[in-house]
Amino acid sequence: MTREKLFEQILQKKSYLCIGLDTDPKRLPEHLMDAEDPVFEFNRQIIEATADLCVAYKPNIAFYEAQGPKGWVSLEKTLEVIPEEIFTIADAKRGDIGNTSELYARAFFETMNFNAVTVAPYMGSDSVKPFLVQPGRWVILLALTSNPGSQDFQMLKLSDGNEEYLFEQVLRESANWASVGQMMYVVGATQAEYIERVRAIVPNHFLLVPGVGAQGGSLEEISRLGMNQQCGLLINSSRAIIYASSGRDFADRAREAALEVQKEMEQYLEQYVMHL
Ligand SMILES: O=c1ccn([C@@H]2O[C@H](COP(=O)(O)O)[C@@H](O)[C@H]2O)c(=O)[nH]1
Protein backbone atom coordinates (compact mmCIF):
# COMPACT_ATOMS: atom_id res chain seq x y z
CA MET A 1 0.00 0.00 0.00
CA THR A 2 1.27 3.48 -0.84
CA ARG A 3 1.69 6.31 1.63
CA GLU A 4 -0.97 8.27 -0.27
CA LYS A 5 -3.52 5.43 0.07
CA LEU A 6 -2.77 5.19 3.77
CA PHE A 7 -3.28 8.94 4.24
CA GLU A 8 -6.51 8.80 2.21
CA GLN A 9 -7.83 6.13 4.55
CA ILE A 10 -6.83 8.19 7.61
CA LEU A 11 -8.75 11.21 6.30
CA GLN A 12 -11.75 9.14 5.32
CA LYS A 13 -12.05 7.28 8.63
CA LYS A 14 -10.77 10.22 10.70
CA SER A 15 -8.62 7.69 12.47
CA TYR A 16 -4.99 6.69 12.73
CA LEU A 17 -5.70 3.75 14.99
CA CYS A 18 -3.89 0.46 14.55
CA ILE A 19 -5.48 -2.39 16.47
CA GLY A 20 -3.06 -4.97 17.78
CA LEU A 21 -4.22 -8.54 17.40
CA ASP A 22 -2.21 -9.92 20.33
CA THR A 23 -4.57 -12.84 20.60
CA ASP A 24 -3.70 -14.98 23.59
CA PRO A 25 -5.61 -18.29 23.69
CA LYS A 26 -5.58 -18.05 27.51
CA ARG A 27 -7.54 -14.80 27.40
CA LEU A 28 -10.30 -15.82 25.01
CA PRO A 29 -13.92 -15.63 26.16
CA GLU A 30 -15.10 -19.01 27.45
CA HIS A 31 -17.92 -19.38 24.91
CA LEU A 32 -15.45 -19.30 21.98
CA MET A 33 -13.59 -22.36 23.17
CA ASP A 34 -16.06 -24.63 21.31
CA ALA A 35 -15.28 -22.98 17.96
CA GLU A 36 -13.17 -24.94 15.47
CA ASP A 37 -10.47 -22.25 15.62
CA PRO A 38 -11.10 -20.03 18.68
CA VAL A 39 -8.21 -17.63 17.92
CA PHE A 40 -9.48 -17.00 14.40
CA GLU A 41 -13.09 -16.68 15.56
CA PHE A 42 -12.03 -14.09 18.15
CA ASN A 43 -10.05 -12.11 15.55
CA ARG A 44 -12.86 -12.36 13.00
CA GLN A 45 -15.39 -10.86 15.39
CA ILE A 46 -12.96 -8.14 16.55
CA ILE A 47 -12.26 -7.19 12.92
CA GLU A 48 -15.94 -7.19 11.99
CA ALA A 49 -16.68 -4.92 14.96
CA THR A 50 -13.83 -2.43 14.45
CA ALA A 51 -12.83 -2.29 10.76
CA ASP A 52 -14.54 1.06 10.13
CA LEU A 53 -12.73 2.67 13.09
CA CYS A 54 -9.11 1.76 12.40
CA VAL A 55 -6.69 2.00 9.47
CA ALA A 56 -4.37 -0.87 10.40
CA TYR A 57 -4.26 -4.22 12.17
CA LYS A 58 -1.07 -5.50 13.73
CA PRO A 59 -1.00 -9.18 14.62
CA ASN A 60 1.92 -9.77 16.96
CA ILE A 61 3.47 -12.86 15.41
CA ALA A 62 4.67 -14.28 18.76
CA PHE A 63 1.08 -15.00 19.78
CA TYR A 64 0.59 -17.16 16.67
CA GLU A 65 4.04 -18.77 16.53
CA ALA A 66 3.63 -19.93 20.12
CA GLN A 67 0.70 -22.09 18.95
CA GLY A 68 2.77 -24.03 16.41
CA PRO A 69 1.29 -24.89 13.00
CA LYS A 70 -2.28 -24.16 14.04
CA GLY A 71 -1.22 -20.63 15.03
CA TRP A 72 0.06 -19.98 11.51
CA VAL A 73 -3.26 -21.23 10.13
CA SER A 74 -5.20 -18.88 12.45
CA LEU A 75 -2.96 -16.02 11.29
CA GLU A 76 -3.47 -16.81 7.60
CA LYS A 77 -7.25 -16.99 8.01
CA THR A 78 -7.20 -13.73 9.98
CA LEU A 79 -5.38 -11.94 7.15
CA GLU A 80 -8.04 -13.13 4.71
CA VAL A 81 -10.85 -11.42 6.63
CA ILE A 82 -9.10 -8.06 6.99
CA PRO A 83 -10.67 -5.70 4.42
CA GLU A 84 -8.43 -4.93 1.44
CA GLU A 85 -8.01 -1.19 2.20
CA ILE A 86 -6.66 -1.77 5.72
CA PHE A 87 -2.91 -1.69 6.32
CA THR A 88 -1.53 -4.92 7.78
CA ILE A 89 1.58 -5.13 9.94
CA ALA A 90 3.38 -8.32 10.89
CA ASP A 91 4.88 -7.39 14.25
CA ALA A 92 7.69 -9.93 13.98
CA LYS A 93 10.79 -7.86 14.83
CA ARG A 94 12.98 -9.77 12.36
CA GLY A 95 16.39 -9.08 10.77
CA ASP A 96 19.34 -11.38 10.05
CA ILE A 97 22.19 -11.76 7.58
CA GLY A 98 21.13 -10.89 4.04
CA ASN A 99 20.05 -14.24 2.63
CA THR A 100 18.05 -15.06 5.79
CA SER A 101 16.37 -11.64 5.79
CA GLU A 102 15.39 -12.31 2.16
CA LEU A 103 13.46 -15.36 3.33
CA TYR A 104 11.81 -13.46 6.19
CA ALA A 105 10.74 -10.87 3.63
CA ARG A 106 9.36 -13.61 1.41
CA ALA A 107 7.51 -15.16 4.36
CA PHE A 108 5.71 -11.97 5.33
CA PHE A 109 5.26 -10.26 1.94
CA GLU A 110 4.71 -13.23 -0.39
CA THR A 111 3.70 -16.37 1.50
CA MET A 112 1.57 -14.09 3.68
CA ASN A 113 0.37 -10.86 2.15
CA PHE A 114 1.35 -8.31 4.83
CA ASN A 115 1.89 -4.67 3.90
CA ALA A 116 4.61 -4.20 6.51
CA VAL A 117 6.91 -6.02 8.87
CA THR A 118 8.68 -4.76 11.98
CA VAL A 119 12.47 -5.15 11.74
CA ALA A 120 15.25 -4.78 14.31
CA PRO A 121 18.14 -2.51 13.15
CA TYR A 122 20.87 -4.04 15.29
CA MET A 123 22.46 -6.09 12.48
CA GLY A 124 22.71 -3.09 10.16
CA SER A 125 21.86 -2.17 6.59
CA ASP A 126 22.46 -5.56 4.93
CA SER A 127 19.98 -7.13 7.36
CA VAL A 128 17.27 -4.54 6.62
CA LYS A 129 17.64 -3.91 2.87
CA PRO A 130 16.31 -7.33 1.76
CA PHE A 131 12.92 -6.25 3.18
CA LEU A 132 12.89 -3.17 0.94
CA VAL A 133 12.70 -4.83 -2.45
CA GLN A 134 9.04 -4.41 -3.35
CA PRO A 135 7.31 -1.01 -3.70
CA GLY A 136 4.28 -0.81 -1.45
CA ARG A 137 5.80 -3.18 1.14
CA TRP A 138 7.10 -1.45 4.22
CA VAL A 139 9.81 -1.90 6.82
CA ILE A 140 8.93 -0.58 10.26
CA LEU A 141 12.26 -0.22 11.99
CA LEU A 142 12.55 -0.33 15.79
CA ALA A 143 13.91 3.08 16.76
CA LEU A 144 12.90 4.04 20.31
CA THR A 145 10.80 1.30 21.83
CA SER A 146 8.20 1.66 24.58
CA ASN A 147 9.72 -0.71 27.14
CA PRO A 148 11.98 0.19 30.09
CA GLY A 149 14.86 -1.73 28.47
CA SER A 150 14.96 0.86 25.68
CA GLN A 151 17.32 2.71 28.05
CA ASP A 152 19.93 -0.06 27.87
CA PHE A 153 21.16 0.55 24.31
CA GLN A 154 18.86 2.92 22.41
CA MET A 155 19.52 5.75 24.86
CA LEU A 156 23.29 5.36 24.99
CA LYS A 157 25.18 8.50 24.06
CA LEU A 158 27.66 7.97 21.26
CA SER A 159 31.24 8.67 22.21
CA ASP A 160 32.03 10.75 19.10
CA GLY A 161 31.21 13.95 20.97
CA ASN A 162 28.10 14.94 18.98
CA GLU A 163 25.76 14.25 21.92
CA GLU A 164 23.41 12.04 19.93
CA TYR A 165 21.69 9.01 21.33
CA LEU A 166 22.10 5.71 19.54
CA PHE A 167 18.43 5.75 18.46
CA GLU A 168 19.05 9.10 16.71
CA GLN A 169 21.97 7.62 14.81
CA VAL A 170 19.74 4.68 13.78
CA LEU A 171 17.14 7.13 12.44
CA ARG A 172 19.68 9.32 10.64
CA GLU A 173 21.51 6.45 8.95
CA SER A 174 18.53 4.26 8.07
CA ALA A 175 16.55 7.15 6.58
CA ASN A 176 18.99 6.86 3.63
CA TRP A 177 18.14 3.21 2.99
CA ALA A 178 14.67 3.80 1.59
CA SER A 179 12.14 6.48 0.68
CA VAL A 180 9.50 7.76 3.10
CA GLY A 181 7.12 5.54 1.13
CA GLN A 182 8.74 2.33 2.32
CA MET A 183 10.12 3.00 5.79
CA MET A 184 8.38 3.73 9.09
CA TYR A 185 9.76 3.77 12.63
CA VAL A 186 8.58 2.33 15.92
CA VAL A 187 8.58 5.01 18.60
CA GLY A 188 6.89 4.21 21.91
CA ALA A 189 4.14 6.46 23.24
CA THR A 190 5.95 6.20 26.56
CA GLN A 191 8.81 8.18 24.95
CA ALA A 192 6.87 11.39 24.20
CA GLU A 193 9.63 13.53 25.70
CA TYR A 194 11.91 12.47 22.82
CA ILE A 195 9.42 12.80 19.99
CA GLU A 196 10.71 16.24 18.99
CA ARG A 197 14.21 14.79 18.64
CA VAL A 198 12.74 12.04 16.44
CA ARG A 199 10.85 14.53 14.27
CA ALA A 200 13.99 16.69 13.91
CA ILE A 201 15.60 13.77 12.03
CA VAL A 202 12.62 12.15 10.30
CA PRO A 203 10.00 14.91 9.90
CA ASN A 204 8.08 13.20 7.10
CA HIS A 205 8.11 9.52 7.99
CA PHE A 206 5.20 7.61 9.47
CA LEU A 207 5.78 6.44 13.03
CA LEU A 208 4.16 3.32 14.45
CA VAL A 209 3.49 4.17 18.08
CA PRO A 210 2.75 1.40 20.56
CA GLY A 211 2.36 2.08 24.27
CA VAL A 212 -0.95 3.89 24.68
CA GLY A 213 -3.66 2.07 26.61
CA ALA A 214 -2.21 -0.74 28.70
CA GLN A 215 1.32 0.79 28.83
CA GLY A 216 0.07 4.22 29.88
CA GLY A 217 1.36 6.49 27.05
CA SER A 218 -0.66 9.61 26.25
CA LEU A 219 -2.50 9.75 22.91
CA GLU A 220 -2.91 13.52 23.26
CA GLU A 221 0.78 14.18 23.88
CA ILE A 222 2.09 11.95 21.10
CA SER A 223 -0.47 13.37 18.63
CA ARG A 224 0.34 16.99 19.52
CA LEU A 225 4.09 16.50 19.31
CA GLY A 226 4.37 13.83 16.64
CA MET A 227 1.92 14.61 13.83
CA ASN A 228 3.07 15.88 10.45
CA GLN A 229 1.17 17.14 7.41
CA GLN A 230 0.19 13.61 6.36
CA CYS A 231 -0.67 12.68 9.93
CA GLY A 232 2.48 10.57 10.08
CA LEU A 233 1.28 8.45 12.98
CA LEU A 234 -0.22 5.01 13.39
CA ILE A 235 -1.08 4.59 17.04
CA ASN A 236 -1.31 0.99 18.16
CA SER A 237 -3.50 -0.28 20.97
CA SER A 238 -3.83 -4.00 21.60
CA ARG A 239 -4.97 -5.23 25.04
CA ALA A 240 -7.03 -2.13 25.92
CA ILE A 241 -9.22 -2.78 22.87
CA ILE A 242 -9.31 -6.50 22.22
CA TYR A 243 -9.70 -7.45 25.89
CA ALA A 244 -12.13 -4.68 26.82
CA SER A 245 -14.40 -7.51 27.97
CA SER A 246 -13.83 -11.22 28.48
CA GLY A 247 -17.52 -12.04 28.13
CA ARG A 248 -19.95 -12.74 25.29
CA ASP A 249 -20.03 -9.00 24.60
CA PHE A 250 -16.27 -8.86 23.85
CA ALA A 251 -16.65 -7.60 20.26
CA ASP A 252 -19.17 -4.88 21.21
CA ARG A 253 -16.94 -3.71 24.07
CA ALA A 254 -13.91 -3.74 21.74
CA ARG A 255 -15.88 -1.54 19.35
CA GLU A 256 -16.75 0.87 22.15
CA ALA A 257 -13.09 1.07 23.22
CA ALA A 258 -11.96 1.64 19.61
CA LEU A 259 -14.68 4.25 19.05
CA GLU A 260 -13.54 6.20 22.08
CA VAL A 261 -9.97 6.32 20.71
CA GLN A 262 -11.18 7.17 17.18
CA LYS A 263 -13.28 10.09 18.47
CA GLU A 264 -10.27 11.50 20.27
CA MET A 265 -8.15 11.05 17.11
CA GLU A 266 -10.76 12.91 15.06
CA GLN A 267 -10.22 15.99 17.25
CA TYR A 268 -6.44 15.84 16.88
CA LEU A 269 -6.66 15.39 13.12
CA GLU A 270 -8.85 18.50 12.90
CA GLN A 271 -6.57 20.42 15.23
CA TYR A 272 -3.14 19.43 13.87
CA VAL A 273 -3.61 18.21 10.26
CA MET A 274 -6.79 19.48 8.60
CA HIS A 275 -6.14 23.15 9.30
CA LEU A 276 -2.66 23.04 7.73
O1 LIG B 1 8.33 -0.67 21.41
C1 LIG B 1 7.44 -1.51 21.24
C2 LIG B 1 7.35 -2.30 20.10
C3 LIG B 1 6.31 -3.16 19.96
N1 LIG B 1 5.34 -3.25 20.92
C4 LIG B 1 4.22 -4.17 20.66
O2 LIG B 1 3.01 -3.40 20.55
C5 LIG B 1 1.95 -4.05 21.21
C6 LIG B 1 1.49 -3.23 22.40
O3 LIG B 1 0.40 -3.86 23.06
P1 LIG B 1 -0.49 -3.14 24.19
O4 LIG B 1 -1.38 -4.23 24.69
O5 LIG B 1 -1.26 -2.02 23.54
O6 LIG B 1 0.44 -2.64 25.24
C7 LIG B 1 2.49 -5.44 21.59
O7 LIG B 1 2.25 -6.31 20.50
C8 LIG B 1 3.97 -5.21 21.74
O8 LIG B 1 4.74 -6.35 21.50
C9 LIG B 1 5.42 -2.49 22.04
O9 LIG B 1 4.55 -2.53 22.94
N2 LIG B 1 6.47 -1.62 22.17
Automatic annotation (TrEMBL):
| UniProt entry keywords in alphabetical sequence | Decarboxylase, Lyase, Pyrimidine biosynthesis
Reactions catalysed, semicolon-separated, are: orotidine 5'-phosphate + H(+) = UMP + CO2
The name this protein carries in UniProt is Orotidine 5'-phosphate decarboxylase
> Which Pfam families does UniProt cross-reference here?
OMPdecase
Q: Pathway of this protein?
A: Pyrimidine metabolism; UMP biosynthesis via de novo pathway; UMP from orotate: step 2/2
EC number(s) per UniProt?
4.1.1.23
- Which family does the record assign? Belongs to the OMP decarboxylase family. Type 2 subfamily.
Q: Name one GO molecular function term.
A: orotidine-5'-phosphate decarboxylase activity
**Which InterPro entries does the record associate with it?**
Aldolase_TIM, OMPdecase_type-2, OMPdeCOase_dom, RibuloseP-bd_barrel
Concerning NCBIfam families, the annotation shows: pyrF_sub2 (TIGR02127)
Q: Which residues form the Orotidine 5'-phosphate decarboxylase domain?
A: 16-254
Instruction: Recall the taxonomic lineage recorded for the source organism.
Output: Bacteria, Pseudomonadati, Bacteroidota, Cytophagia, Cytophagales
Which positions are catalytic residues? K93 (proton donor)
